């Protein structure tokens, strides 16, 4: 069940809490996900991309076994209310919703994770509230907040890594049409976003689609990003940072993502082999080994 808090403009926003526990008996280990209210080594606030509701994050491949996950639904998605002012969908305004959540949870500092477009929110928050961030993980991050462009040729190069896949011809033709401005068939392009285009990936693709077109358009509206000032703030950012890219990620290829990582004084940059834009789906164990170790080493015990 979701819990609720108020955004700075009064919009009612929702978040869920996920933690994985283990019940051990003599002959088996049962793992179950459940809603908890007590902290488990301090929570990690996980900002979804889209903007869409946070359910597509699941428990991030089992990361909830390492840390309690706080999963907010951005305004206008999931169980969060539609705001009265459409301009409040902008990324810079959504970053203040993260601060409202921190205050609501009673946390002095937060461990923060942002995925895809949610990484733009997380980066904007870190630039604006650096003293409130204990650690920061950016997963398959969007780079608009810092002005790093992903060029069409970069996407083509990433796509060609998959030319042996049976779905490649149709997907590549759709990508070319998108790159050349001839329209976008997102269902045809979808296989490029996963390391394996199997039934699990197809289900996840359906579940991860944004449902609020106004929120998607408003997130990147004029004034949402200030790359110059954000870069300057990140150059002085002192908290530990992990930046993780998927080897095959067409949305956030490793090259541009490494440029984002280089903006921090000492970020750790990692590429997950065989992964696309959702690395916890492609290889949960590999994802949790990297991200879980990062957060566990900074656990406030």
Question: What does this protein structure show overall?
Answer:
Helix 1 crosses helix 2, helix 2 (117-128) crosses helix 8 (227-235) and helix 3 (152-160) packs antiparallel against helix 4 (168-179). Strands 1, 2, 3, 4, 5, 6, 7, 8 and 9 form a nine-stranded mixed beta sheet that branches. With 301 residues, this protein is α/β, with parallel strands linked by helices. It has helices at 91-105, 117-128, 152-160, 168-179, 186-189, 199-207, 213-219, 227-235, 254-261, 279-282, 284-296; strands at residues 3-6, 12-24, 29-34, 43-47, 68-73, 110-115, 133-139, 241-246, 268-272.
How many β strands by DSSP?
Answer: 9
First and last CA, distance: 27 Å
Low-confidence stretches: 23-40
Order of helices and strands: EEEEEHEHEHHHHHHEHEHH
Provide the residue-averaged pLDDT: 90
Gyration radius, rounded: 19 Å
């Amino acid at each position: 069940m979701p819990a609720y808090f108020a955004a700075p403009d009064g919009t009612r926003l929702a978040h869920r809490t996920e933690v994985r526990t283990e019940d051990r008996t003599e002959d088996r280990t049962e793992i179950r996900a459940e809603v908890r209210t007590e902290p488990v080594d301090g929570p990690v606030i996980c900002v979804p991309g889209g903007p869409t509701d946070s359910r597509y994050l699941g428990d991030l491949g089992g990361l909830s076994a390492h840390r309690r996950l706080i999963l907010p639904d951005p305004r206008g998605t999931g169980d969060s209310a539609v705001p009265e002012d459409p301009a409040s969908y902008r990324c810079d305004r959504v970053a203040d919703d993260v601060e409202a959540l921190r205050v609501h949870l009673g946390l002095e500092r937060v461990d923060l994770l942002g995925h895809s477009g949610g990484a733009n929110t997380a980066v904007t928050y870190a630039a604006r509230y650096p003293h409130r961030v204990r650690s920061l993980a950016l997963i398959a991050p969007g780079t608009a907040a810092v002005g790093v462009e992903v060029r069409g040729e970069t996407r083509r190069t990433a796509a060609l890594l998959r030319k042996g896949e049976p779905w490649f011809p149709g997907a590549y033709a759709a990508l070319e049409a998108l790159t050349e401005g001839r329209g976008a068939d997102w269902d045809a392009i979808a296989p490029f976003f996963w390391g394996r285009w199997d039934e699990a990936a197809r289900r996840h693709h359906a579940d991860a689609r944004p449902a609020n077109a106004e929120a998607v358009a408003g997130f990147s509206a004029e004034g949402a990003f200030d790359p110059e000032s954000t870069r300057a703030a990140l150059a002085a950012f002192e908290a530990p940072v992990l930046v993780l890219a998927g080897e095959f990620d067409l949305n956030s290829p490793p090259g541009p993502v490494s440029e984002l990582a280089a903006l921090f004084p000492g970020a750790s940059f990692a590429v997950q082999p065989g992964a696309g834009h959702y690395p916890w789906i492609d290889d949960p164990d590999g994802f949790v080994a990297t991200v879980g170790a990062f957060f566990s080493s900074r656990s406030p015990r």
